[in-house]
Amino acid sequence: MPTIPRVAAFHDISGYGRCSLTVAIPILSAMGIQCCPVPTAVLSCHTGIPHYRFFDLTDFLPAYLEGWEENGMLFDAVYSGFLGSCRQIGIVRGFIEKTLAKNPDAVILVDPVLGDDGRLYDTVTEDMRREMIHLAASADCITPNITELCLMTDTPYRPEEMTAERVASLAARLCTGRTKTVIVTGIDAGDEVHNLVYRPGEPYAVAASPHFSRPLPGAGDIFASVVCGKLLSGYTPLAAATAAASFVGKAAVLTEAENAPFAEGVLFEPFLREL
Ligand code: PXL
């Protein structure tokens, strides 16, 4: 039987808007990786779209994961994104610890989904922000956007002051615990968007995509899902970030060319076979 890497993916499922599990599953599958979802919440659409309905699944998670444990299920990676409650963040930490005890080589990727454009998402509380900082320290690689970088380092959000050096020095503060790679996404750099890869003891590097003229919800989830798949395929963090920036860039160009409404998110499906 071919070895197909297996990822436990802790994200919500939003029925409309192309984010979280509805991007992680197709992207990982297209890369030849099995994505085993752990749905953290069910939403009718993501929280950036009006009239969303949100159902937190925290109470179901312990039994869900116990069922996996009783079957002895093993994972090559744990990948988390949008989490529905503070308690849930602790549950993900517990699952990471158990996974690493069984497979010390497992890749742990935490996308610390907290907010964008300088503010927390609707469902994210101050307690969740603090817990997310703990969770991030148990990951090999984290992928905060600029807002999340500021929220996690108690830094006022002033994107105009975010030079590459400043971003790298804030990223360095997040290299605690297990974390060896911080990829800061969505840095506005004029006609490009930069994603800065920081690893302690190495010069920082940048993976660029074209600049988008409007917010693209879900772009961070698409980016992190490609990074996850590429890290599992043996790419270096910079090569993984470069592949992710290129994929998001192509999808963003199409989204703008089609003038797709905000609620559609990023039109990525036509590019899946290129992964
Ligand atoms: O794209 C991040 C994300 C994921 N899941 C949900 C969200 C958001 C951002 O708004 O609302 C439910």
Account of the 3D structure:
With 275 residues, the protein is α/β, with parallel strands linked by helices. It has one domain (6-270): Ribokinase (UDP-N-acetylmuramoyl-L-alanine:D-glutamate ligase, 3-Layer(aba) Sandwich), CATH 3.40.1190. Helix content is 36%, strand content 21%. α3 links the parallel β4 (77-80) and β5. The site of 3-hydroxy-5-(hydroxymethyl)-2-methylisonicotinaldehyde (PXL) has 15 residues, from β1 and α7. Residues 12, 14, 19-20, 43, 46-48, 82, 113, 121, 217-218, 220-221 line the site of 3-hydroxy-5-(hydroxymethyl)-2-methylisonicotinaldehyde.
Order of helices and strands: EHEEHEHEEEHEHHEEEHH
Query: Structural class from helices and strands?
Result: alpha/beta
Give the cofactors and ligands: 3-hydroxy-5-(hydroxymethyl)-2-methylisonicotinaldehyde
Strand content: 15-25%
Head-to-tail CA distance between termini: 23 Å
Tell me the number of helical segments per DSSP (H or I, 4 or more residues long). 8
CATH architecture: 3-Layer(aba) Sandwich
Provide the CATH superfamily: Ribokinase
Gist?
This protein has 275 residues and is α/β, with parallel strands linked by helices. It has helices at 21-30, 61-70, 86-102, 126-136, 146-152, 164-173, 219-232, 237-257; strands spanning 6-14, 34-43, 54-56, 77-80, 107-110, 115-116, 119-120, 141-142, 181-189, 192-198, 205-210.
